[in-house]
Design goal:
Blueprint: H1 2-17, H2 27-32, H3 42-53, H4 58-71, H5 73-89, E1 91-92, H6 99-105, H7 116-124, E2 130-133, H8 140-148, E3 154-158, H9 162-176, E4 188-192, H10 199-206, E5 215-221, H11 226-229, H12 256-262, H13 265-275, H14 281-291, H15 300-310, H16 317-337, H17 339-352, E6 354-364, H18 367-381, H19 386-401, E7 413-414, E8 418-420, E9 426-427, H20 430-435, E10 443-449
Parallel strand pairs: 1-9, 2-3, 2-5, 3-4, 5-6
Antiparallel strand pairs: 6-10, 7-8, 8-10
Helix pairs in contact: 7-8, 13-14, 13-16, 14-15, 15-16, 17-18
Length: 450
């Protein structure tokens, strides 16, 4: 009873000291729930009352503020307008997605040619006597283009992947000797195990005369084929267990494993930041370097496990770490194959080898590639004086409106050396995106030599 009396007296003192606090101890209820094991010291009461006096945490404040902002009609309207603006900037393809054509030229299991109808439209108005597919893959685009252009006399297909190269050879040969092939001219066909960075030297090797008039059409499909992603031994998949390889060319010496285990920590961080655009790059860099002390990283599962443990818990669980892992794998693949530098130099050499009126079409799959394609195309076409630009813009607007090529030509950017036929990139139709989720980030840009 003495203990209870002391508690009551101390509670009264506390209420007098904190008169502004709208909280009163219910002594009767407290007395009933009292147990001898509870240490009822003055410090206990100070802690309880100070806890009640604390202001809401910054996290709860932030959540409350965000909720209020989201309910604000002005903010809702602003977000809606921003989303509409983003969709307007995107030129979604109006081409009807023909599943029968995809079945004819694609492989439901390993390969589906992305934006096939749009690519055929790009070259439909060109007298395509010579054509180069810089990334032949499983030859889905190539076979469709060869069939659509019986006037073609020279075809060159390039790929650094020996499996893709072999598959393309078999498929193109099978088509050329099949019943469905009706050709006006004999076709000289070359499929070479080469990187498109060797574009000019390849043309000199197969037919030096083709460089004089130039090539009529060139296609670059920068995406990875499903047969590469689905092969765990290549190390490209986030969801499969395999070695940390990531080489497009198996003969190349550098692997992702080498970068992770031996490159300076600052270089590892730069790759994650610049090539993966990963915000958590510094934390990942430190974890990767720390893993070297226990033997390093040697498989995709080990790397994914490290990423999963490093991902903040606030990023949406499995989807959060998978997105991070996808960016990390992209960064390592770009570094291993030097993809961005190769792309930039190759765009210039490809354009130089085009004939007047010839077209170069590029399908990119992430913002880094698309940015390079966009900026390089603008640099290639050259600048004009203001008078020339205004005259050409008017002419090009009329051209695009009256074009017999189809609805894909929306706005043209004119230049001294060429014209960009896609001011905004063409993206897959909604129907194609539903049937092939891997194409959703694809962007098609086209440039024409004058």
């Amino acid at each position: 009873m003495a203990a209870a009396t002391a508690i009551a007296k101390y509670g009264i003192c506390c209420r007098r000291s904190f008169s502004s606090l709208k909280f009163h101890l219910n002594f009767n209820q407290f007395h009933k729930s009292f147990t001898p094991s509870l240490s009822l010291t003055p410090q206990f009461f100070h802690h309880s009352i100070s806890t009640l006096q604390q202001k809401p945490s910054s996290h709860s404040k932030k959540k409350k503020r965000n909720k209020t902002e989201n309910q604000n009609p002005k903010n809702v309207i602003a977000k809606t307008l921003a989303e509409e603006s983003r969709l307007k900037r995107r030129t979604r393809s109006e081409k009807k997605f023909d599943q029968d054509v995809i079945r004819q030229y694609g492989d439901d299991v390993n390969h589906v040619p992305v934006m096939l109808g749009e690519v055929l439209d790009v070259f439909s108005a060109v007298n395509l006597r010579s054509f180069v597919d810089c990334t032949v893959g499983a030859a889905g685009h190539s076979v469709a283009i060869i069939q659509a252009h019986p006037e073609m006399q020279l075809y060159v297909g390039l790929d650094v992947d020996p499996i893709a190269h072999e598959k393309a050879q078999v498929r193109i040969n099978s088509f050329l000797h099949g019943e469905s092939c009706h050709r006006t001219y004999d076709l000289k066909m070359y499929t070479l195990l080469k990187n498109f960075k060797d574009f000019r030297s390849v043309l000199e090797e197969v037919d030096e005369r083709s460089l004089t008039p130039g090539v009529n059409g060139i296609l670059m499909d920068l995406g990875m084929s499903s047969m590469q992603v689905n092969n765990a031994e290549r190390g490209f998949s986030v969801l499969a267990d395999g070695p940390l390889d990531m080489r497009m060319d198996p003969k190349a010496s550098l692997k992702a494993e080498d970068i992770l285990n031996f490159w300076p920590d600052t270089e590892v961080g730069r790759i994650l930041r610049d090539y993966g655009e990963e915000s958590n790059w510094y934390n990942l860099q430190n974890k990767i370097v720390k893993a070297r002390a226990s033997g390093g990283l040697h498989s995709t599962v080990e790397l994914v496990d490290l990423i999963r443990k490093s991902a903040p818990s606030t990023r949406g669980g499995r989807h959060g770490w998978i997105k991070t892992a996808t960016r990390v794998f992209q960064a390592l693949r770009i570094a291993v194959n030097d993809e961005l530098n190769t792309l930039k130099t190759s765009l210039y050499s490809c354009f130089d080898c085009l004939s007047p009126g010839g077209r170069l079409a590029v399908i990119s799959f992430h913002s880094l590639e698309d940015r390079i394609v966009k900026q390089t195309f603008l640099d290639i076409i050259g600048e004009k004086s203001e008078d020339e630009v205004s005259t050409d813009k008017m002419q090009c607007r009329l051209e695009s409106l009256n074009s017999s090529e189809g609805a894909w030509v929306k706005q043209i950017i004119p230049g001294q050396n060429g014209k960009i036929l896609t001011k905004r990139p063409i993206t897959p139709s909604q129907e194609e995106e539903k049937l092939n989720r891997r194409c959703r980030s694809a962007k098609l840009r086209v440039i024409q030599k004058v």
